Known about the structure:
The chain contains six helices and four strands; from the N terminus they run E-H-E-H-E-H-E-H-H-H. The chain is of the alpha/beta class.
Amino acid sequence: MITSGGPRHLLAERASREAGGTRTVLIVPLGALEQHGPHLPLDTDTRIATAVALAAADALRVQGHDVVTAPAIAYGASGEHESFAGTVSIGTEVLERLLVEYGRSASGWAGRVVFVNGHGGNVQAARAAVDRLEYEGRSAGWVPCAPREGEAGLPAADAHAGRIETSLLLHLAPELVRHELAEPGDTRPLRDVLPELREAGVAGVSPNGVLGDPTGATAAEGESLFDAIVRAVVARIAGKDA
């Protein structure tokens, strides 16, 4: 079992002179505040990204890397969920600008900035921001909270608040999962619902906000998946594939 980190590498708890240096990798969890069906908390993506970032930082430090974990960026591009109460989206354009400015500032004292992304809607902004930062001569990257291809048998029809995210939350924060309220949503593979999703948002294809079936989720499956995700993130950051 991979466990998440402690205060020894939390940026927010360090004094300025301890923040980092040219060898420091600053890991920044990137999440969202959006609906996750009737059974999961609004901060699901941020919670997962933070746990992955902390655990990855622990593993990287064991390998000898100088790693610091920043407080999470808790808002993202979640326009597809705006029909649901509790969702707060800042949009792709604003998120991209935020990440660019964040990277520019942090690069003044950290050797590398890596965003650990827990929300699919942030990918476009993260990719564009990192490209911009690299173009400007800064060392930056981003990694998804996802296992390496083929390492975990993931259901194809599980895009949002389904078995995957519910299992992860049962492992990371079981007290926040309303398991008795878990119910299937649209269970078609994401590729089949994408046209409708782009046209009408999540509510247009799934009134309960779920894309997948969370009813079979377990904490044991969540632990196994979490460990696979952390291993993948560590490998990408250590290999500078981020």
